[in-house]
Amino acid sequence: MERVAAAAIIDALGRVTGWSEGARMVTGRTAEEVVGRPAADLLADEVPAAVLAARSGTVALRHADGRRTELALTACPVLGPEGETTGYVLTADPPRQADATVAGQAFQQASMSMSVFDTRQRYLRSNDAACQVMGVPEKALLGRFFQDTVEKAPHSEGFLRHLRQVVETGRPVRYESFTAAPTLNRDHAWSVEMWPLRDPGGELTGVALAAFDNTEQYLARVRLALLNEAATAIGTTLDVVRTAEELVELLVPRHADFASVDLLDWVLGAEELPSMPEGDIELRRVAHGSVTEGTPEAAVRLGETDVLPAASPTARALRERRAVVSQAGEPEFHRWIDERNARAPDGRALRRGVHSMIAVPLQARGILLGVVVGARVRHPDEYVFDDTVFAEELASRAAVCIDNARRFARERSTALALQHSLLPSGLPGQAAVEVAHRYLPCGSVAGIGGDWFDVIPLSGSRVGLVVGDVVGHGIRSSATMGRLRTAVRTLADVDLPPDELLTHLDDLVTHLAADGPGEEVAEQGATCLYAVYDPVSRHLALAAAGHPAPALVLPGRGAELIPMTAGPPLGVGSLPFEAAELDLPEGAVVALYTDGLIEDRDRDVDRATEEMCRALGAPADSLEALGDNVLKAVLPEQPSDDVALLLVRTRALGADRVATWDVPPDPARVADFRQAATERLADWGLEEAAFVTELVVSELVTNAIRYGEPPIRLRLIRDRALICEVFDGSSTSPHLRRAHAYDEGGRGLLLVAQLTQRWGSRQTGGGKTIWAEQPLPEGPLRVTGE
């Protein structure tokens, strides 16, 4: 059947001046009835403004039989000789019926949003999915300019820009957008493809588009990106609370409008894990955050405990060890909100909008640590299954970091306790030096190191000074430090010179490394500095094994490092140690320290050493104040290694407190030296000690004459104890033995051991010295010349 076009001509005044046969067939009105009449008389409704502006669209006419007829109308202007508009030619078709072809059905019923625009971005077609997104029927869109159908927003302007780009370039465009739509309650992710439409002659006639809603895939990518971010954002420190804060910072606002982390109390301490409590569970709040500054909606403040009812979602998550989701409208959700409101009524208004919450247990290595809670207020979506999978994975990663921090804190606490038990809590009394010490454990993730120091009283009023540093950190280093400190004390008690003591200590470290597993060899390495100061001779002897040289401050002068040759670190073996010796005036300050004071990855060692010497040379009210000043001047805010600092100020025992006699190798002269010793005790006001001292002098001098070699000297020292020393040129050391009933000798040293507080012998450069100490009697003492 031949199709007759429906056309009409309207002049500039809006009157019908021409009417086609097709127009009669569509409207049922003849030309005689219509021509000369205003076109507005034929309308059933007013023409929409958008159709007038576009000169295209759906128009409702009144049929001759009175029924309403909708036509797809297009108006083309008729121009006069001067280019002015003299009228319009209208062409109209009946309303488009549903396309019965397979292609038409596929377009109309496609699950993705599809539309067709003309070259001026006006709607020509829209399928059901597009109309559902826009929230209006297709007839409300046809002929309308796209920008007039949406709100003015950046994403709408971007859509229009891409439509025009296709018209201008004639090439397809593909892009992604994350925007809302009129009928959608939240932003969706769209993958949009636009392509040009051409007629058989190749002329561009319109633009078609298809928009696929890939929101779920987009959210999955977001969750995956968040998990990847968690790998670097959570666990940056080995601090339990900071790790919990990092978890909250990651969740808010991208996954929750409010989030909190509550931990079982034992996680924050150094105890081992207890069993899971039955019934109500008590947790401690360590971190929370929200989209509202200050987190005013939190019912539990930081550091406070929260008792979870057994039926609450959080308690269920802990017991069942899985994520629990609760939504508004569910009884347990409202009980949770009511309990929060009862505890903190001030935040009731802020909690009114909460519509979904999720509680996820924090568990690592099979150990339950606590729970993380997320709640949504402004976020329009409820938590769904995909959110629980993501939250459990994120909580699992965070829990491992929290457990690592817990284990580190426990090991650090154990190492600190071990180290403090091994370090001297109170330095022993002695008169040779005045002492001040400082020890600062580092706060680095490596853990507590093996730095140590010691002050060891020696015979003859001398004192041993020790500073050492075990390579490595943690309990192993602290234990090694304890063994070395004990070894140094044992070797010092033998009165070995500094270089010989370090040689024996080096052998010990080598044996420890050889006896232990291979991976522990490096941990056994250590550095050490050992010095001996004699207040009578004012002589200082020292040797170092891979340790920095001490600093010396002479009275009235600045500080400088003591020139000495540092031997290899302990454990290297087979290399010698050299001793340095110097005489010091009374009041000199010697600073012994570990390398943590001057060495750091971000500091220059030479500059740090200069700063230390400058601080040591500055005036200070006391030795304690000097130690504080040195640490303040040299150390960074957060040292990366342990620091031990031992400051000593030398004292001297004057001639009025020391008496020395040369003894000829004649047994008949022993009585003379007993008498000389008694007279000196009288001068010192120590008559009560005369009887024991006579016996000690007699036995020691007699043994030296009988078994030793010249030269022989007798010395009495009045210090914190009364010391008797006898020197001879023989290197043979005496020893106690049990005398039999008929033996004529062998009881001398046994008698000395019984009458004195302690006794011993030490090797010297030209022989040996046998000494004995006895406590001073209480009461005032007289000193010659006083």
Protein model, in words:
This protein has 20 helices and 31 strands. Strands 13-12-11-16-15-14 form a six-stranded antiparallel beta sheet, sandwiched between helices. It has a five-stranded antiparallel beta sheet with strand order 2-1-5-4-3. Strands 7-6-10-9-8 form a five-stranded antiparallel beta sheet, with helices on both faces. Helix 18 (670-684) runs antiparallel to helix 19 (690-707). The longest helix has 38 residues, at 385-422.
Strand content: 25-35%
Helix content: 25-40%
Distance between the termini: 147 Å
Question: What's the total helix number?
Answer: 20
Estimated radius of gyration: 49 Å
Give the averaged pLDDT, no decimals. Answer: 85
Oligomerization category of the chains in this entry? single chain
Query: Tell me about the biggest sheet?
Result: 6 strands, antiparallel
Helix/strand-derived category reads alpha+beta
User: How many strands in all?
Assistant: 31
Uncertain residue segments = 518-523, 738-746, 779-786
Strands of the widest sheet, in order across it, are: 13-12-11-16-15-14
Shape: rod-shaped
Secondary structure topology:
Blueprint (H helix, E strand, L loop, with lengths): L5 E6 L4 E4 L1 H7 L3 H4 L14 H6 L1 E7 L5 E12 L5 E9 L8 H8 L3 E6 L4 E4 L1 H7 L19 H16 L3 E7 L8 E11 L5 E10 L1 H19 L6 H12 L6 E6 L17 E10 L14 E4 L4 H8 L3 E4 L3 H13 L4 H4 L4 E9 L2 E10 L8 H38 L10 E8 L8 E9 L5 E11 L1 H19 L4 H18 L5 H4 L1 E9 L4 E7 L5 E3 L5 E3 L17 E5 L5 E5 L11 H13 L5 H12 L8 E8 L7 E6 L6 H15 L5 H18 L4 E7 L2 E8 L19 H8 L2 E7 L2 E9 L11
Antiparallel strand pairs: 1-2, 1-5, 3-4, 4-5, 6-7, 6-10, 8-9, 9-10, 11-12, 11-16, 12-13, 14-15, 15-16, 17-26, 18-19, 19-20, 20-21, 21-24, 22-23, 22-25, 25-26, 27-28, 28-29, 29-31, 30-31
Helix pairs in contact: 7-12, 8-12, 12-13, 13-14, 16-17, 18-19, 19-20
